[in-house]
Amino acid sequence: MSVKQERRDFIGLAFGAVAAVGGALSLVAVKKTWDPLPSVKAAGFTTVDLSPMKEGEMRQVEWRKKPIFILKKSTSMAANDNRDVVVGDARYIVVIGLCTHLGCIPEYKASKQEFICACHGGIFNVDGIQTYGPPPRPLDIPPFKIDGTKLVLGETSPEYEKLVAKA
Q1: Where in the numbering of this chain does the Rieske domain appear (predicted)?
Q2: What sign does the CA torsion over 63, 115, 95, 75 have?
């Protein structure tokens, strides 16, 4: 039994192979265009070293173009296990610094230990819980992970999940 292979069969097989390789390469190219750029991935995380902060100090950092308020609680401030981030023996409040009413940026008044929103008079206590005015809920807690004395914003962790479940 002899198998006769014609030129037309070879051309058909060659065309099919080229089309399969081209299709696979185009799918790889499409997937690469859907992936976020490395610069976008890098902007998703912000690392803050908490060790140089003094008691009662409030620091504002930026994460994903949003202000983040980090307040190291002093011993005179009441502990709140539902909202405090505990790093070592220190307690911190970590919240997104946008009023939950209309998104204005509240100002921290250290003398009153309150966050006051000038837009419509909303007041949040030192834990970020609304105490007066139109804000419908407390200041939001951003996703975070604790890495030694560093706070990594943008990653979730068991500590974050526990706070969000309580808050």
Answers
A1: 85-153
A2: positive
Task: Verify that 71 and 20 share a domain, yes or no.
Answer: no
Q: Do residues 48 and 90 both lie within one domain?
A: yes
Collapse the DSSP code of 120 into the 3-class scheme (helix H, G, I; strand E, B; otherwise coil) and give the result. coil
14 with 31, same domain?
yes
Q: What are the pLDDT digits (tens) for 118-162?
A: 888 899 999 999 999 999 999 999 999 998 889 999 888 888 888
What is the tally of structural domains in the chain? 2
Bridge partner residues of 95 (DSSP): 69
Among 75, 79, 139, residue whose Cα is nearest residue 104: 139
Q: Could you tell me the pTM of the whole model?
A: 0.73
